[in-house]
Write a structure and sequence with these properties.
By secondary structure, this protein is mainly beta. About 10% of the residues lie in helices and about 45% in strands. The radius of gyration is 12 Å and the shape is globular.
């Protein structure tokens, strides 16, 4: 789990992404959210959970949302206004 950068919902499956690749698992994002270490993983959108150690920086936009940029990955993950409070201290 130390290598996992983020998890993204894909209907009944979840995409798990790490530095070496990606895989689909047959668990919902909701099921996984309850099992993950809350000190390391945070939900940032209804369909995305990110590993905090993999966050490079956060860019806020004017409409109370933001985007998370990850270290060593090209994906940009959305942060909805419901979860923007996670990054207020950063």
């Amino acid at each position: 789990m130390d290598e996992v950068a983020f998890l993204r919902s894909d209907e009944k499956y979840t995409l798990v992404a790490w530095a070496g690749g990606e895989a689909l698992i047959r668990k919902t994002i909701r099921e996984l959210a309850d099992e993950l270490d809350p000190g390391r993983f945070v939900q940032i959108h209804r369909s995305v959970i990110v590993a905090l150690p993999h966050v490079s920086h956060v860019v806020r936009s004017g409409n109370e949302t933001a985007e998370v940029h990850l270290r060593g990955r090209s994906e940009v993950l959305p942060v909805s206004r419901s979860w923007l409070h996670v990054f207020r201290q950063m």
